[in-house]
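[agent] plan:
  1. take the single chain provided in the ticket
  2. run structure prediction with default settings
  3. attach structure tokens to the ticket
  4. add a short note for the reviewer (M.T.)
[agent] executing step 1
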Amino acid sequence: MSLRKLIKDTQKKTNSSYFLIYFKQDNTYSIVKANCVEAEQLETGTSCRVRDGKDFHDGTIVTFGDMKDVSNAAGDIIEKIESQRRIWRKSQPRIRRKSQPRV
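[agent] step 2 finished; step 3 output follows
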């Protein structure tokens, strides 16, 4: 393997070009390019500010990496939320409404 290829591969592995951000104010997740994220520390769980044009939004870093890794993490989170929602719905008592006579 050439030195040039080795350096290029190392840069790809260390280059976290995307972040999965959780926005508490509207309870959403979003995949964001790294150049839009401003934070003291770029670590999982730290708070950050995300630039959206001229606006900034406060968020929390969930994970980071290349697009494939971040997309997989987002999919896992969505699956967890959906499974918890299904469990919650099953635990709720069903309310049966009395049928109204047709007019």
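[agent] step 4 note for reviewer: Strands lie at 18-23, 28-33, 37-38, 47-52, 55-65.
[agent] ticket updated
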